[in-house]
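Bug #77: duplicate submission created two jobs. Keeping one. Sequence:
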Amino acid sequence: MKTIITLLLAGSLMAQQAKSDIDTLTVNTVTLESVTVSALRAKENTPMAFTNISKEELEKQNLGKDLPVLLRFLPNVVTTSDAGAGVGYTGIRVRGSDATRVNVTINGIAYNDAESHGTFWVNLSDFASSTDNLQVQRGVGTSTNGAAAFGASINLETDKASEKSYAQLASTIGSFNTLKNTIKFSTGISESGFEFSGRLSNITSDGYIDRASSHLKGYFLQGTYNSNNTKIKALTFGGHERTYQAWYGVDPATLASNRTYNPAGEQYDEEGNVQGYYDNQVDNYKQDHTQLHIEQRLSNNARLSLGLNYTHGYGYYEEFYDSFSGGEDVSYDYLKLPPLSINGQAITETENAVRKWLDNDFYVANLMYHFTNEKHDISAGAYYSTYNGAHFGELLWASTANINPKHRFYENRGKKKDGNVFAKWDLSLNDNWNLYADAQVRWIDYTVAGEVAGPESFTVNDSHTFFNPKAGVVYQPNPAHQLYASYAKAHKEPNRTDYENGNPVPEELNDFELGWRWKTEAAYVNANLYYMDYKNQLVLTGALDDDGAPIRQNSGDSFRRGIEIDAGWAFAPHWNWQANVSWSKNRNKDKYFKRDGALQALGDTHLSYSPSLIASEQLTYARDTWSISLVSKFVGEQYMGNIDAELSKLESYLVNDIQFQAVILNNENAPRLDVNIHVYNVFDEVFSSNGYFYTYDDDWSSPTAITTIEGVGYYPQAGRHVMAGLTLRF
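Kept job's structure:
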């Protein structure tokens, strides 16, 4: 039945292009796109695959779940949620590439963490409420700032200045005691060109997984000035998250018997029975961003902009280690404690509670130039950032040790400098032909000095210079049809975890794209073929390190190839259907693996976390003041490792949602009231969207043989659940 429904649906939501009879839910804004944003984005005649998402479409999805979950219906996208219901830690994969390989910028400023390359949306609670629009480019895409896009790039632009003053109250209530409250306001643009706006948000949820609670606070404050030739935008935004840890997953036996079980914080009695859970097994982190953007019109065709950014992040995750669980985490050596003897007996282990801290500063300067006329569209930019991050561990308590307050058992500091210059040229030869050229030079300098938990010395001193050219051509025989072809090269440096777990080398990617776009007033089709050829791709092994971070290894030669099709059709009055489907083949070439002590040639194997079929759809019926949609998402089976082990397979799943939006009050010169109701997983599908896979060699059970042991864990997702929101606008 699942397969039949999937074939009937044949695709995925392209809600951002839906035609709806329902009134727009947003106030009028100044629509001029900033120089910084336009310089990084693909345009209608750019020969690459991309999707634009408007503020209106984000609002239809936004009931408090993290931003990756709001994008889950886009082409070739898979999302995950540790807590099981989309609030708290979430992840996104595009074309099989995880978040560390998806470049994210906010107003042209890199958001990916400089060291881990990750994007932690939990630190920016309800950020979708302050996002005016975004673009997702699949593949390498156009030149951007920060770490290279090895699967996709996501470019966000925050709220534009509102022409009119307004106040807005939005509240959501839902399953798992989920509650979201948001206050937004704007003074409107004054006669002198000034506007001030802001947002405060608070989200709480118990989570689907046991104790996977989230307490998320977010804010956004912005001042703008607009004149005929000058635009200034000063803003500060951030958030404070406190989430109970839910990144351990469950083994197959627990998945079958108690799928919501969370082993985090387990405390044992003397017989090894779980007697309770550590109350403060939490992740507690605060992140604040301050940006200043100044844009100057030089002429009718040219604009120049300067962007400055300062980000401060500070927080920890706290963990309790019980002596029954064993491991090095309870040893005196690991905790860097002096020897202790009681009644002549050496004490070597102790139950303990620790905090592992991050304290980092990130500075950015960004200069952009944009020129356009009937034939030429030229962008050029220079970007420089510096990062300074302290990592340290504090021992809060130990059962058998006299410790000084906040005893540090490891400490190191990472520093990174990242710069690039690029130039893009889009040339219109005539009404039918466009040429595209794009070149970037990027350099990175990364150092780490100190100790990591163990204690073990950890030193990195690495630098790289990369040249990333791109080129393409677009042929448009008539207004309805467009054909394009492009080539893009990208390089990407390893992240901090890669250095901790081995001796990685940079990755290299050659990305070839071939596409067709067709559009009429009632329908559209976008089809894109891609071939991504990797050298030394850092692929997820499926395993996690001691801190829960995914382990990656260079994979030699590998590739991803596939086709992405998205389409929409307004087939009758009030009816609209959008869908997309992605078929792909993702392989390691000539993979070798050491099993039972002997090296084996496995040939070509599946790349981890890369399903070959991803599809979803949206069927919408809309009237003047209300609409209802059936939205479906299918993700095919995928391997969680790279050795094609049967145990590492994650089963396919099909999830269906029902979404209802309505305008209840909308009288002129009176408050407006909107309602938004979502029933998620309406057919109560039992599934896991993510997991982990690991192997280790057992060389102690038998004196003459080595046996390779496999293990697996899963992150179960919520069954049927509901969220409902009301928005009142003055």
